[in-house]
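Task 17 of the worksheet. Students: predict the tertiary structure of the chain below and write it out as structure tokens. Keep your answer in the requested format; marks are given for formatting as well as content.
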Amino acid sequence: MQHLLTCSLLLALACMPAIAARAQWDPVGRAGWLRQLDPHVRTADQVQLYASVASTWMLSAKARPYLDHADSLLRELEAAGDRSQQTRLAVLRVNLLYMEAYQAKFRRDIPQALAMFGEAVLIQEGLGFDANRIHDAIGTLYRSVEEPELAVEAFRKGLASEKNDPQGRWALHIGMAGALADMGRSEEAAKWLLPCDTTVAGVLPMLRCEQARIAVLKGDSLGGIRLYGQVASGCGTAPDEWCRVAPLTAMAKLQLAGRKWTDARALADSCAAVALRTGDEAAWCTCMILGGQARLASGEKRMAERLLRSALDTARHYGYIGLARLSGEDGSMVRAAELLKDLYLADGRLPEALRMTSYWSMLKDTLNRRDGRLEVLRAEMHREAFADSLEQARITAEERRLLDGQLATERLRRAYVVAGSIAAACILVLIAYLLARRLQQARRLARQERALYAKEVDELLHKQEIAAMHAMFEGQEKERDRVARDLHDRVGSMLGNVKMQMEVLEDRMDTDHQERVGQYRKVYGLLVETVGEVRRISHDMVAGTLARFGLEKALEGLCDSVRISGHLAVECHCFGLGERLERGVEIAVYRIVQELVGNVLKHAKATELVVDVTRTPDRLSVIVSDNGVGFDPHAATEGIGLTNVRKRAATIGGELSVDSTPGKGTTVSLECALGK
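Model answer:
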């Protein structure tokens, strides 16, 4: 039994680096683990299940709740002190520390990440297992903060610790080569890459990526792109294609640097598609930013703004402010905000540029505060200084103890004299302070309770208002369906019968009475128009295209119906609507766009109308813009149409904004979070 336990633990530790290298993989396994989770079960197996789910989102904020629960449960089991579970719990603790360190690195908290990796090394070596994979992660972390000398030392420790782990050994070789190349020692780096065995699983993609990076450092961008391309085309296919993200991203950046906007855009789009399929939100944000940057450089400002805005909103939703980075690159939120502020400034949109500049500056300040480079250096120097001065500190402490013994009696005597004179005063001051603080706390609690009550009342009223609007719009849709069915089934049938009878009557009419024949045909023409109008109204009321084909086809049909050649050019762009939304959301969005398009036709006097609908993993964005006469949204009073639009937006939890200037058109935006 002990032998089987040891083998299973070694297998779990051997799988640890694969977790880091394949952060977003195994969605099938995750689905199975999720079904087995039970927060009421307090066992080591449940800790392993929660950790396994978290490992499939290693580079995502989605892992956070699963890691927190696993840590809490593991602490509870450790406190129970079951000796039969001691080794297994220690292995689980190493695994959690490893993932927590990656999350800390992901948040740009470098000192915390180093502390967790260090604790994992101590436990791992205490168990008698190899710690080479953890040393590899530490070396990679040092490289991410541009400390290649410390990275080299970490990789050397990993190689000294490695015993029988070929994949880990060659990963350390590749990491060592990268750190040496960062120090400008390319020839020495190449020697570390030579012995790498590419027949070992996972080694070839890592080797080619590092060779490509070294080629770029030496000025051979074309060679680097060729090597990255080999990795992207051969390292994986759906669903195990996450390893394509890094080379596609690197190639897109190189093409941007070479001013090849079309190639950069295609690579960024491919990268975004892979990231979306594998669930890597952080990589999706990075690729969307690269795509926006390429389109911005090639003059596609509207599409660039859409991509950058989507990346910023998604990054802000997940908190990617300090995404761990190599070569000093900023995280997604900072980069997207920087490009948007430059875009707004170049377009002369000064208010938006000012707001985005302020937001970007705030993000940079926060990121700089989180930057752990100085802390890393200080921690390392303090550790070395402490080791060197430990003996001297022991001698000094002994001498000081003897001197303190001689002075202790005198200090004690004086302390008694002083204490006797001020004790009463201190007690009185303490009592007064405690009473004042108690009174202050009581007042603060009373204020907080009143504020909390007011907030709960406001939230209840808001929920009731939303529920009422839901009911009202649902009733409207049901009434539309009922009236449409009556028009189609009853009135339409009756008009069709009348039409048939009139056709029979026409055959019997005396052709000599031309005046009567003409009058009859005029009435018959009006009847045909009436039948068609009843049919059109019934179809409009039930939104037939929306129900049968979905939101994208319905919006395209709406745009086609209002397009007037030579007078009104209408564009409809839909992104990410291949999968159907909830019926209530589709109806609400369709009615909102229908109302906004109607407003343009009635009031805008526009020659161009653009409808943009973008769906990201967790958000829906709708933009309707025209080049009409515009208006002052602050001075104008909202009509019934725009008021209804706001109410419909509220029913799906959306936020509506109106941007208009007299003479410069109008843009109405809807942002809505999608439920999971």
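Marker's comment: The first strand starts at residue 569 and ends at 575. The radius of gyration is 34 Å.
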